[in-house]
Specification:
Layout: H1 2-17, H2 23-44, H3 50-68, H4 75-80, H5 84-95, H6 102-114, H7 123-128, H8 130-147, H9 151-156, H10 158-164, H11 171-196, H12 198-224, H13 234-249, H14 254-258, H15 265-297, H16 299-319, H17 329-336
Helix pairs in contact: 1-2, 1-15, 2-11, 8-15, 8-17, 11-12, 11-13, 12-13, 12-16, 15-16
């Protein structure tokens, strides 16, 4: 439960304290450090017991608990609660004591007043407001995109998949390679996200992931037909490697960023809650029924279905999701409100 709160609160907090020009880079850091954490666990898994690993993982958590207690509340949240003076103090701390925050502070206060962000919006209010309703649809679709990219299935059954392809890598070695590729991909994403934009990276990522999943499906289909694939045993390894980089530059980190940009702060908590409930429910269903489903329709069909889903999400991104790079959240809301 506590981990799920992190997925909701950390991206939202970063989005509300970051300058518009750097919101993308800082937003991607969430998934980058998430992947670094996984990589570190893969690295020490063979050296320590489960109990020792759990104790080691307590150290950064305790450091965070102590250090974050000194961090300020976000200016937008303070404005919503009517604490204008505290909001100014918070923004000054975030921008530096010598920074001129008057223009940004007035703009933030004006936008919150214009968009009526005086309280948390209920689900009924969200559905009645056209711009917020479109933002909610984007949140849901991005959470579905993150689930139907196949990453949780790949990670959960990586050992089985590698065994099926005829590679003898241990699960720990394969996981370490996967973790390294994911960290490298998210570092690349943090560099590109405020240069190329969110839409571009999401589309490129979805198309890349779709192609790699289609290739994996084709490989397993050839095995299903009992065709000798020993001479192309390298193909699924290359596909998985490209898949990991492709997913790390867009579909993995950017949904957590974009969903904080397409909803006003007053609507974000309810929107995030709904989106993440859908995400984790589907994660549970797919993780528990993937093997059963693959036995019924074939693992190749599962990969082809996920490949097709990524093409749908690429089209949705192109047609529906606005570019949010460097734009104030209230400006994005006004675009979503246009009929």
């Amino acid at each position: 439960m506590a981990a799920s709160w992190n997925f909701v609160l950390c991206p939202q907090y970063v989005s509300e304290i970051a300058e518009d020009a750097h919101r993308g880079t800082l937003g991607v850091f969430f998934m980058m450090f998430f992947n670094i954490g996984y990589l570190l666990i893969y690295g020490i898994a063979a050296l320590f017991s489960y109990r020792s690993i759990a104790i080691l993982c307590l150290i950064p958590s305790l450091l965070f608990l102590f250090l974050f207690a000194w961090m300020p509340e976000t200016p937008s949240n303070l404005f919503i609660r009517g604490k204008d003076l505290e909001a100014g103090i918070s923004l000054q701390w975030l921008r530096g004591k010598n920074a001129n925050i008057a223009e940004e502070l007035n703009k933030l206060k004006t936008n919150i007043t214009i968009t009526n962000e005086s309280s948390t919006m209920s689900f009924r209010e969200m559905f009645n407001d056209y711009g917020t309703r479109r933002g909610l649809i984007i949140v849901i679709m991005l959470c579905l995109n993150k689930q139907f990219d196949g990453i949780y299935i790949i990670l959960s059954y990586l050992g089985i998949i590698m065994l099926e392809t005829g590679n003898n890598l241990s699960h720990i070695t394969a996981s370490a390679i996967v973790g390294t590729l994911q960290v490298g991909g998210t570092i690349l994403s943090s560099y590109l996200v405020d240069r190329k934009g969110r839409r571009f990276l999401l589309i490129v990522s979805n198309v890349t992931v779709s192609v790699c999943l289609a290739v994996l499906g084709a490989f397993f289909y050839l095995k299903h037909l009992e065709i000798d694939v020993s001479n192309i045993g390298w193909l699924p390894v290359i596909s998985l490697s490209v898949y990991m980089v492709g997913i790390a530059i867009g579909v993995s980190p950017l949904p957590f960023l974009v969903i904080t940009e397409v909803c006003l702060p007053a609507a974000s908590k309810s929107a995030f809650t709904l989106g993440y409930c859908i995400l984790w429910i589907l994660s549970f269903v797919m993780a528990n029924f993937f093997i059963t489903l693959s036995d019924i329709i074939g693992v190749y069909s599962c990969f082809w279905f996920l490949s097709s889903a990524c093409i749908v999400f690429a089209l949705f991104t192109f047609l529906v999701i606005p570019e949010t790079k460097g734009r104030p959240i209230q400006d994005i809301y006004r675009e979503l409100s246009r009929k």
